[in-house]
Each structure stands twice: as structure tokens, then as C-alpha cells.
Design goal:
alpha+beta, Aminopeptidase, two-stranded antiparallel ribbon, 18 helices, about 15% strand, elongated
């Protein structure tokens, strides 16, 4: 073959290639736009339609494979997904993967349009095509960015609220098997604290002290509320604090009178100040002190604590879109009672009015839980339990998906705990059980065991708690605590009285029964 013939062959080859590519191009700008849309919905299809069959088939196979793998893992390896969601290092990798996949998707769309658009196109057609591709890329970039921000919000939440066991100090946290934390724990006991450290408060007082005892097999939960004005809170004999307060937390030299600085709600602040480091190294001495003392008072070993900042509580309710509660009597917003005969009372700014299914925003939801002007502590404790119940009911999948970043931001400011990162997957699984299980209140019998806060009968309360936790069956219809009666000819229901020392399902306790007020 002559040199001229070979040269002619080489010159003709590119023209043949260009003609084959041209044959696969759209004949109009509008058709190219339509094919580009298909390529965005089915990544790789644009390359197939543009003549790059092998590359297109590879991208389509890869895309379908990734989708199938994600579905398979989500449906059959839920534990792995949960572990990913609570591991900061894995979440960082997941963020990078999300961003990379979004970038690759955009590159595929742009390349597909370049391959499909006509060789000859007017300036208007080229501008229209470019604008459409820009919109497609924007439509891909926005959800990719939101997904990446959501993953980073979760990482920020886990890193700020839940410290790893090696990076945190606790004088009271148990040692557990990370692979199966509840293997030797039939009931998990968690101390729930509401810390009122807002503006105008000197130091921090835990106005809400509650114990959640959770059956780790079923999720059934008992809530035990303690009055904030309990005195003589006990300590175990083997605790270093017992030698300072052998008769409980009070000052005998002041006599048998109310001692506000020795109330339960003052222990969080006052004991660490009086005896710093008494229990050992701790990131939150006040919470550790309360775990030891409340556990002794109730006859329980408290495993972990969760502390809620009541100011951040308002943000959490707002992030959930509000909560729905039944209000059985007027609940004050604000107000400060200075004592019998005092002329210096600060009156409430307004009241939440009675009514069923009242939807409250963050501000009103907070005051529904904490308002007490003219009301008793037991009524406040009941409303706090109902608020927790309402929050659990409001945390539905729609809220969690659409408002997760706000929820994560609020929770980061709201929560403090000694639950380590390493066992968070087990906690999430237990939380799913709790949401679908029975939640009830344990009545400690105020009239008999603590008519005032000066000298509560802790031994009698321990017996009540023990009996309540040993109960294997749920309340039946004949139990007064779980029934309501209706007067003939009346549209209002009258609640049956909960027996002293009994249990009451929160669905019943939080129902609409205005006569209860």
C-alpha cells in the first residue's frame, strides 16, 4: 500500500467517527433537552443514546447497583445503619461520599447533554439547553447539599452531646459489654433532670427530677417523679457522701424546719460546692451526686442521666412543630409566689386555658411543663410527664426527616448526658421499643409518704417502687387508675382516682378530664 493511500485512510477515519457521533445526536434543541432530562433520571442513559454504549451501560449498572445495595442494607442490615448514624468518623466519610456522588451525577448530566445536542444549533437553542442543564444541576446540588448538611448535623450532635467513654469522666457510669449492653440489665434506670438555669437564676437548680425505669426486653417504662422540695435525701453507706450526711442531706442544727438550701433541687449546685471531687473524677459532679442519692432514695441503681436545659427545651418543641396536649385546668405562664401573706407576688402574664388537643408552640409548651403559680408540685410533675409523652408522640418520621437539622441543633444545646457513644446503637434500638410500649407513672403516695418535704418516708417509697417494677401485667379495665367514668347526661368525663402507691398509664393520666383540676 502506497504512502498516499495510508494517509488518505488516516484522514478519512476521523470523519467516519464524527459521522457516527452525529448520527446519534438529537435533531433539535428541544429533543436534546428531553433526552438530557432522561439522562438525569437514569444516569448513563444519555451516553447510550449518544452512541457511547459501553460507558453508558457501565454507569447505568453502577447506578442501579448502588441503589440496590442501599436498599438491601437499609432493609436487612438496620444495625449497620444505626451504627453509622452514631459514629462521628463514619458520618464524616458518609458526607464525603454524598458530595462525591452528587458531583459525579452532575458531570454525567453535563456530559450527556454535550453528547446529545445538535452539531448545528442556534444561539437561542444553545442558551435554552444550557439553562435547562443548569436547572438540572441545581436540582441535583440542592438535595445533595441538604443531605450532606443533615449528615454533618448528626455528626455535630453526636460529637457534642455523647462523648466516647475514653474522652469523658463519670464517677457513677457502669461498665458494660459494648456488643450487648443489656445482657445483664433487665431494667435500665435513667435519671432525667430538668435544669432551670435561665436568666435571673443564681446557679443551677434541678426543678425536675424523674427516673425512667425501662424494661430492656419489651420497652415498657415506669416514670417516677420526685418532689423538688424533698429534704434528707439519703446516700448509700459505702458512698463518700454518707460520712458527711449520715442522716441524709439536711442540717440538723437548723431544726426540723424547711431548709430550701437542702432541698433536692439544690443538691446539684450545693453539694459539689461543699465537697468537690468527693465521688471522684466527673464531667458533671451535680448529676453524679443526684444519681447516687436518688438511686438510694428509690432503691434503684441508676445507670445514666440525661439533663435537659429548660430554655433549650423550648427550641426542641419549636423544631418538632409544637406538641399537642390536653389541658384540664388553667396553667399559669410566668408568676412568682413569694409566700403566704406576701404582697410581692409576681402575677402570671396569662394562663393556658383548659381544652382537649391543644396545640402548643415552644414557649407555651415550656410553660405547660413548668408553670406552678397557685398549683401544687404533683400537678406540675404530672404535666411534665405528659409533656414528655407528647414529645415522643410528636417525633414522627415526617418531622424527623423534614426538620432534622433544627432538631439536631436544638438537641445539641438542650441535652447533657453520660451515655457513651459506644452504646448509642443499643439505645436507639431500645428507644424504638419504648415508643411502641406502655408508659406508666408510679404514684409514691404523697399524702402518706411526704405530706411535706421535711421528712419523706423513703423506705415506704422504695417498697412502692419495688412492687411497681415487679408487676408483670399492664393495668386492666377494673383498675381505678386506668379508667374514666362518664356522668349520665354529661359530655365531660370524670377521671377515676389513681390508688395510692399504684401505677397509671400515661395515656389515661394525660387524657382530657377537666374535673381533675
Amino acid at each position: 500500500m502506497s504512502r498516499s493511500t495510508r494517509a488518505a485512510g488516516r484522514r478519512s477515519a476521523p470523519r467516519g467517527s464524527r459521522s457516527r457521533q452525529k448520527a446519534h445526536r438529537a435533531r433539535s434543541a428541544s429533543k436534546a433537552i428531553g433526552l438530557t432530562l432522561i439522562s438525569a433520571l437514569i444516569p448513563g442513559s444519555g451516553f447510550v443514546m449518544g452512541g457511547r454504549t459501553k460507558l453508558g451501560a457501565f454507569i447505568i449498572t453502577l447506578s442501579l447497583g448502588l441503589l440496590g445495595l442501599a436498599a438491601f442494607i437499609g432493609l436487612t442490615h438496620r444495625d449497620s445503619v444505626v451504627e453509622l448514624a452514631v459514629d462521628p468518623s463514619r458520618l464524616l466519610i458518609a458526607t464525603a461520599v454524598v458530595v462525591l456522588l452528587g458531583f459525579c451525577w452532575i458531570c454525567v448530566v453535563v456530559s450527556s447533554h454535550k453528547l446529545l445536542r445538535p452539531v448545528s444549533v442556534s444561539a437561542v437553542g444553545r442558551l435554552a439547553g444550557s439553562a435547562f442543564v443548569g436547572l438540572l444541576c441545581f436540582g441535583i446540588a440542592v438535595p445533595t447539599t441538604v443531605a450532606a448538611q443533615t449528615v454533618m448535623a448528626q455528626r455535630d450532635l453526636v460529637g457534642n452531646v455523647f462523648q466516647s467513654e475514653g474522652d469523658s469522666k463519670s464517677a457513677t457510669r457502669p461498665k458494660v459489654n459494648k456488643k450487648d449492653p443489656w445482657a445483664n440489665t433487665p431494667r435500665l434506670n435513667i435519671l432525667l433532670l430538668g435544669a432551670d438555669d435561665g436568666a435571673g437564676r443564681e446557679g443551677t437548680r434541678t426543678d425536675t427530677v424523674m427516673v425512667a425505669s425501662i424494661d430492656t426486653k419489651t420497652g415498657d417504662t415506669k416514670l417516677i417523679s420526685l418532689s423538688r422540695n424533698f429534704m434528707r435525701m439519703p446516700f448509700p453507706e459505702d458512698s463518700p457522701l454518707h460520712k458527711f450526711y449520715p442522716e441524709g442531706f439536711w442540717d440538723p442544727s437548723l431544726g426540723n424546719v424547711e431548709q430550701p438550701e437542702f432541698y433536692l433541687d439544690a443538691m446539684y449546685r450545693n453539694l459539689p460546692l461543699a465537697h468537690p471531687g468527693a465521688l471522684g473524677p466527673s464531667d458533671n459532679e451535680g448529676a453524679d451526686v443526684l444519681k447516687v442519692s436518688v438511686g438510694e432514695a428509690m432503691g434503684l441503681k441508676l445507670d445514666y442521666y440525661m439533663q435537659v436545659n429548660l430554655q433549650g427545651f423550648e427550641q426542641l418543641i419549636e423544631a418538632l412543630g409544637g406538641i399537642t396536649v390536653n389541658i384540664n385546668y388553667k396553667v399559669p405562664i410566668g408568676g412568682d409566689y413569694r409566700g403566704p401573706g406576701s404582697a410581692d407576688d409576681t402575677l402570671p402574664s396569662r394562663y393556658l386555658q383548659p381544652g382537649p388537643n391543644q396545640h402548643l408552640n415552644g414557649h407555651d409548651g415550656l410553660w405547660f411543663a413548668r408553670g406552678r403559680y397557685g398549683l401544687s408540685d404533683p400537678s406540675r410533675q404530672e404535666r411534665q410527664r405528659c409533656t414528655i409523652h407528647a414529645i415522643v408522640n410528636s417525633a414522627n418520621p415526617a418531622n424527623l426527616v423534614t426538620k432534622y437539622q433544627q432538631l439536631a441543633s436544638a438537641s445539641k444545646k438542650l441535652l447533657r448526658t453520660d451515655i457513651p457513644q459506644e452504646i448509642l446503637p443499643a439505645f436507639i434500638d431500645l428507644g424504638r421499643k419504648v415508643k411502641g410500649a406502655n408508659v406508666s407513672n408510679v404514684d409514691l403516695d404523697k399524702d402518706k409518704n411526704f405530706p411535706s418535704g421535711k421528712n419523706p418516708d423513703y423506705e415506704a417509697m422504695r417498697e412502692i417502687v419495688k412492687n411497681a417494677l415487679e408487676t408483670k401485667t399492664k393495668p386492666v379495665a377494673s383498675t381505678p387508675s386506668s379508667t374514666t367514668t362518664k356522668k349520665p347526661g354529661s359530655t365531660k368525663t370524670t377521671p377515676a382516682k389513681t390508688p395510692a402507691g399504684g401505677t397509671e398509664d400515661l395515656k389515661d393520666a394525660c387524657a382530657y378530664h377537666p374535673a381533675k383540676g
